[in-house]
Amino acid sequence: MALPGVHTDRGELRVHESLEELSTDLVDYIAELSEASVKDRGVFAIALSGGSLIGLMGKLCEAPYIKTVDWAKWYIFWADERVVAKNHADSNYKLAKDGLLSKVPIVPSHVHSINDSLSAEEAADEYGFVIRQLVKTRMVSVSDISDCPKFDLILLGMGTDGHVASLFPDHSVLEEKEEWVTFITDSPKTPPERITFTLPVINSASNVAVVVTGESKAEAVHLAIDDVGADDCLPSLPSRLVQPTKGKLVWFLDKPAASKLKSLELSSE
Ligand SMILES: O=C1O[C@H](COP(=O)(O)O)[C@@H](O)[C@H](O)[C@H]1O
Description:
By secondary structure, this protein is of the alpha/beta class. Helix content is 29%, strand content 19%. The strands form three sheets. Strands 1-2-12-11-8-3-4 form a seven-stranded mixed sheet. It has a three-stranded antiparallel sheet with strand order 5-10-9. It has a two-stranded antiparallel sheet with strand order 6-7. Strand 6 and strand 7 form a beta hairpin. The ligand O=C1O[C@H](COP(=O)(O)O)[C@@H](O)[C@H](O)[C@H]1O binds next to strand 8.
């Protein structure tokens, strides 16, 4: 049984007994947001990440979701991508295509992946331009407090070092305030060349979900969520900088990932 969602200053915490249970809760959450967004705006603009997240979304290809989700209204983006060919094992696009997109009736022209024939810098610029065009036509909504796109949902994973998308600790990319999409060529995790949504874009979304599993990430989860004293002790932990301005933040955790969380202990006292 899942622990009931716990509401903290750092968003809602949903801690699950098993990956099976987490995965069911995650796909229910995505399906609910899709339905609400299609009802409200006629479309659902969702940004994916790579890594373990995609496997946890696999149930979307099965009953009931395969029939109940309005796939034709989905517009797919990537919060980060590795600058490799689309058929490369490191490609986040390939991961999502093989594990999800090829198994559901998505409209191919609604899948917005990066141009893999360009340099990292050019690919980031072009991806930003593509998003700008879709904001103009309101396929992607716009924030009412900044000029940023307001995705209906941005799905993030988190690395053991606390990175989200391709925003790494202590990296100058965390300071980027102007661009919507930027690039790095020195990722501490291979491959080195990546494009990534910037923090202003992530924090302008209507909904952000961070999906984290495994004991190896427990310390990073603690630092990202718990009240660890002055926030400026951790100025460059990317997962702590995920703070949607007006949107909703939900953490999907399994018990090992949540094992060092003080916020949970406090909520049960
Ligand atoms: O490199 C990346 O890593 C993170 C975390 O991946 P995980 O396998 O530890 O869940 C992922 O969210 C990001 O999209 C990816 O490019």
